[in-house]
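Record type: ASSEMBLY
Status: queued
Input:
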Amino acid sequence: MICVLSDYGTESVYVAELIGAIKKINPNAEVLSLMNNISRQNIFEGAFLLRSIAKEYPEGSIFICIVDPGVGTKRAPIIVETSKHVFIGPDNGLLYLAAKEEGIKDIYIIDTELLPERKISKTFHGRDIFAIAAAILSLGYKPSFIGNKIERIEKIDIPKALVKNSSIEGKIIYIDSFGNLITNISIDDIRLANFEKEKELEVIFKDRELTFTLPFKEVYAEVDVGKPLLLIDSFDLLEIAVNKGNAKEYFSANIMENVIIKKQWK
Amino acid sequence: MICVLSDYGTESVYVAELIGAIKKINPNAEVLSLMNNISRQNIFEGAFLLRSIAKEYPEGSIFICIVDPGVGTKRAPIIVETSKHVFIGPDNGLLYLAAKEEGIKDIYIIDTELLPERKISKTFHGRDIFAIAAAILSLGYKPSFIGNKIERIEKIDIPKALVKNSSIEGKIIYIDSFGNLITNISIDDIRLANFEKEKELEVIFKDRELTFTLPFKEVYAEVDVGKPLLLIDSFDLLEIAVNKGNAKEYFSANIMENVIIKKQWK
Amino acid sequence: MICVLSDYGTESVYVAELIGAIKKINPNAEVLSLMNNISRQNIFEGAFLLRSIAKEYPEGSIFICIVDPGVGTKRAPIIVETSKHVFIGPDNGLLYLAAKEEGIKDIYIIDTELLPERKISKTFHGRDIFAIAAAILSLGYKPSFIGNKIERIEKIDIPKALVKNSSIEGKIIYIDSFGNLITNISIDDIRLANFEKEKELEVIFKDRELTFTLPFKEVYAEVDVGKPLLLIDSFDLLEIAVNKGNAKEYFSANIMENVIIKKQWK
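Status: finished
Output:
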C-alpha cells in the first residue's frame, strides 16, 4: 500500500500523473491518495499531518510525502525506514516527525541512476523520482537497491509547550478544515499543569493581547451552537473550537500564533 | 468494499486517519472515499446523498456515513442491515432514508466493549468506532459480533411535495456542485399533476414571492447558454437549472426554500 | 483499471454514483477517481489534461473522461482504442488529443441497446452509459460487443506556437492549481528559436500590451520567493511562474491569452 500526501492540490493533474507513474511500474500497487491539500510549501504542516496519519496505518505501508519548495535544488531525495513504515520524500524536515516518532532504522539517499531509465524533470520529482522509488519498493525491493545509506536527516521540530506555575504557553500549530485551532499543548501538559479538572480556562492570544474565558469540555456539543470551547481533541492536543462553528474566524486566529492557557482567577 | 461519506472535508486529515484505522485491521479492505464534503453537520443532506449513492452500489457494500454533531453525547453508534447493504454511523437520522428505501432488516447498537481495544476519543468516533466496526464487518464478522440488536432507529424524512389541483408545492432539498436546484418534486408528482407535457411551467419561490416562467425541457442544452430551465434530473426529481450556469446564483436560491410549480395561465 | 476524469466536481455525488455503477457490474474493477475538477464544460482543458495524464498510465488502462455540455443531444457516446489505452466519453473532441498522441486504432459508437438494461437518464450519461461501458470492457469484453465501428472522431487541436525569426508566439493553454501559466510553447519550439541558452527572455502579454523581462531558469527556487520566472515544466512546456507564488494573480493572466516570447534586445 502506497499512501500519497502532498501540496500538489486535491485532484490536481500532478497527483494523477504521480499515481500513473507508480501504476506503470507496479499495476498491482494499491495507491491511496490521502491528502494533497497540505498548505502550499508548508513543510511544518506536512510533517505534523504525516506523523498524525502514519500512526493509523498498518506496518509495511509506504508513504510518499511531498512538500518540496526546493525541488530541483540540492536537497536530497530520501527514503526513511522505521520499524513500521517507509517514508519517501525530499530531505527538508518533512519526513522527520513521523520517522522520529516511529524510530528511525535507516536513511537512504535515492540514487536516480539506479531507477528505471526515465527523463527526470527539474520541477516534478514527485512523479519522476518519488513515485518511481515507491513503486519499486512496493514490488519488494529493498531501499538499498535504489539508494545509498546516509547517516543524517534534515530535522524540524514541533515547538514544545511550556508548562509554568499557573499557565501553559503554547502555539496554534494546525488549523483544520473546520477552522478548529489545534495547539501544541498536549493532554500530558494539561495534566502536568493540573488543569484537567478545570471547568473553565483563560485563553490569551498573546500576540494580539486578547483574553477569553472558555469552558473546558469533553465534546463540542456540550456548549451551545456557535459558542467557543476548549477540549482535548482526537490528536490528544488542546483545541480551541466553536460548536458547529469556525474558531479560526470566531477568533480571527492565525497559524503559529502564541496562546497562553491559564487557570481562571477565582 | 467500504464506502466512506462524511462531512469531515475532502482529503481532510480525519478521513486519512479513518481510512488508516480500517486498513490496520483489514489491510485487504477496499476503501472508497466517496464524499467527505457533505455540508457540515447537515444530517438531512447526508441522508439524501447516502440514499442516492447507495442505490448504485453492489450488494454487500458497507457504508460508513458520518455527519455527527452529537459526537460524544448519548446518540448511539449503530449498524443497520438491509437486504442489500450495511450502513454504519451515528443514530441521528442520517442512515434512515437509505435504509428505509432498501428495507431495514436489523439494527444493532455497537458495543464498544466488543471492539478491539483502542482508546476512543470523545470527538472522533469516525476513526475510533465506525471505522473499526466497518473493518471488522469487512472481515466477515456479523454485526451481532460487535453489537446488540435494537428495535428502533432515529428517523428523518424528506418532506413530500404536495400535488394540488393545478400546482405542486415542494422544496429545494439539495443544491449540487454546479448550483443546480434539486427539488423534492418527483417525476411521479409531475405525472400526477399532469405537467409532463407542458412546454413551460411557472416557478414561484414562495418565501420570496418571486415568479418565473421557465421552459420545461429534457436536457440542459435545449436552452441557450446562461438561460434557466426546468428538467427531470438524474435523481428523477424536478430540477431548476441554468444551461452552463449556476441556478443557485441566478435565482439567489436557498436550500430548503419553498417552490410552487404551476401550469402557466393561458 | 478504470480511471475517471470529469467536470462533475471533486467528490460530487455524481462521481460517487458513477463509481457505484461500475462496481455493480464489476465489483473487482479498480476505479481511480483522478480529476473531477476539470473547469466546467471546458472540453479543451479536459482534452489537454487527459493527454498529459494518460501518458503516465500502463497499457490496458481504461479512461472514462466526461466534459459533456451536449449531454442528451445528438453527440455520440464513443469508445476509442489506441495501441495502449481505451478512452470512453462523449464525441466532442475531448478524447481526441490523447487518442491521437497514442495512435488511434478503432473508434466505436456505443449502442445503448447492447448495454445491460438500465434506465438511461437524459442528463447523466456518465453514470448511465459511460460507466456501464467501462465496466463491461473491464470484464474483458471487446468494444465491438457494445458498439459499432465508426470512421471518424470529433477533433480539436491545441493551437501550435509559431516560431518566428526572433520570437515565439504562443498561448496560455492551462493554468494549474498553483496558478502557474502553462503555454503551448514546447521545449522543441524553444530549441528551434535558439532560446534555450538565454538567461532572460521578454514575455509580452499581447492582448493586454504588457511586457516583462523574466529570468529563464530550470527550477522555481532559482529566483527569490515571490519573484516571477520562466522555465520548462514537467509538461515539457514553457511555463510562466512565480516562486512560491501565484503567476495567474501576479500577471492577472487569463486562460487562452496570447503571449510572445522574445530574446532580449542587447
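Annotation: The mean pLDDT of chain A is 96.
Annotation: Residues 203 and 217 of chain A are 14 Å apart (CA to CA).
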